[in-house]
Write a structure and sequence with these properties.
One of its GO terms (biological process) is methylation. This is caffeoyl-CoA O-methyltransferase. One of its GO terms (molecular function) is O-methyltransferase activity. InterPro entries: Cation-dep_OMT, SAM-dependent_MTases_sf, SAM_O-MeTrfase. With 165 residues, this protein is α/β, with parallel strands linked by helices. It has a domain of 115 residues: 3-Layer(aba) Sandwich (Rossmann fold), CATH 3.40.50.150. It is 40% helix and 21% strand. The protein has a five-stranded mixed beta sheet, covered by helices on one side. β6 and β7 form a beta hairpin. The two termini are 31 Å apart. The relative contact order is 0.17.
Length: 165
């Protein structure tokens, strides 16, 4: 999974604006350590390897363990660009891990434009499969009274959620 140049630049500035010190990116959790090691030379070249706490394993049990270990409210910013069919499950956990006033960013919330496509629109198989999961997330975020949201047409759509309670 990749982040577009405009999205990367936007997130970089946003993190500076909110003075984020403790962040999480769900892709820093993976069931296969080889995926992390593939990017490790770039991480090392950038001089940030000491800032990354890679967790091997499925993300949901890792998040459950973090909640059990009392990491509640300890993150300034959390970014999610992972399996779209678990976005709702991630949100249920992440809302407690991000501090009040902190941000959660969900990537791909416009999902190739599929979220506004007519039901009979010709869509690639994987786009059609995940469309309902992304729509479900968008509806749930809009109805969640613990956050205020802003959906931006940057990259493939990013929805920022600021925890207010």
């Amino acid at each position: 999974m990749t982040t577009s140049a405009d999205e990367g630049q936007f997130l970089n500035m946003l993190l500076k604006l909110i003075n984020a010190k403790n962040t999480m990116e769900i892709l820093a959790m993976d069931i296969n350590r080889e995926n992390y090691e593939l990017g490790l030379p770039i991480i090392q070249k950038a001089g940030v390897a000491h800032k990354i706490d890679f967790r091997e394993g499925p993300a949901l049990p890792v998040l459950d363990q973090m909640l059990q270990d009392k990491h509640n409210g300890s993150f300034d910013f959390i970014f999610v660009d992972a399996d779209k069919d678990n976005y709702i499950n991630y949100h249920k956990r992440l809302i407690d891990l991000v501090r009040i006033g902190g941000l959660i960013g969900y990537d791909n919330t416009l999902w190739n434009g599929a979220v506004v496509a007519p039901p009979d629109a010709p869509l690639r198989k994987y786009v059609r499969y995940y469309k309902d999961f992304v729509l479900e997330l968008n509806k749930a975020l809009a109805a969640d009274p613990r956050i205020e949201i802003c959906q931006l047409p940057v990259g493939d759509g990013i929805t920022l959620c600021r925890r207010i309670s």
